[in-house]
Design a protein that fits this description.
This protein is α/β, with parallel strands linked by helices and 185 residues long. It has three helices and nine strands. The strands form two sheets. A six-stranded mixed sheet has the order 4-3-2-5-6-7, with helices on both faces. A three-stranded antiparallel sheet has the order 1-9-8, with helices on one face. The two termini are 23 Å apart. Bound molecules: inosinic acid and magnesium ion.
Length: 185
């Protein structure tokens, strides 16, 4: 599916617009994978996948990354429906051995930046050799905190709209879409 294609009629009640088609997602992933491969070629980086929203992105990025790397998973939750609750719950970090590792945080979207900031605060204590971030989407929003971390690799910058698909949900729905779409509120 291409960006701007009509929304398949079966999803038309939930999605108003195909914001990023699967073909564009695949293209950007292959570009970023090449850049990461160049930078991390002999470092065996650890892709630290923030579930659940990054699941599709991480699976595709990992398969496009032509160097040895490992995958680990943590869980972060902040949203209730389309609203950020302002409280971030991070699970699974304590059981990981990250000391000395080159960590690449794989996130679905940066909105207020609270999740990444809290994650950075926790990751700074684990003794990683380096910490970089790779985000599928960066929302253009005035809600971003001044102290939000700068994302190292952003695949797409999007307007301040609530989006679903390609891993992103609204109350657990619509993650399975192969494209990123604007949620019909
Ligand atoms: P932040 O902490 O406000 O930056 O938001 C980060 C998390 O909120 C993301 O990792 C998503 O899981 C979720 N989120 C933010 N905006 C959206 C959206 O438009 N659609 C779906 N999830 C979102
Ligand atoms: Mg997320």
């Amino acid at each position: 599916m291409q960006t701007g294609d009509p929304v398949p009629s079966i999803w038309a009640d939930d999605v108003s617009e195909v914001l990023i088609g699967s073909a564009d997602i695949a293209l950007r992933i292959s570009q970023v994978a090449q850049a990461l491969a160049h930078h991390y070629c002999s470092l065996n980086p650890l892709l630290l996948v923030v579930l659940k929203g990054s699941v599709m992105f991480a699976a595709d990025l990992s398969r496009a990354l032509p160097i040895p790397h490992e995958l680990e998973f943590i869980r972060a939750k902040s949203y209730d429906g389309t609203q950020s609750t302002g409280t971030i719950h991070i699970q699974g970090l304590e059981s990981l051995a990250l000391s000395g590792r080159h960590v690449i945080v794989i996130e679905d979207i940066i909105d207020t930046g609270l999740t990444l900031r809290q994650l950075y605060n926790s990751l700074n204590k684990v003794g990683a050799a380096s910490i970089k971030t790779c985000c599928l989407l960066e929302k253009d929003t005035a809600r971003r905190g001044k102290d939000a971390p700068v994302v190292d690799h952003v695949l797409f910058r999007i307007p301040d709209k609530y989006v679903v698909g390609y891993g992103l949900d609204c109350d657990q729905r619509l993650r399975h879409l192969s494209f990123v779409g604007v949620y019909r509120q």
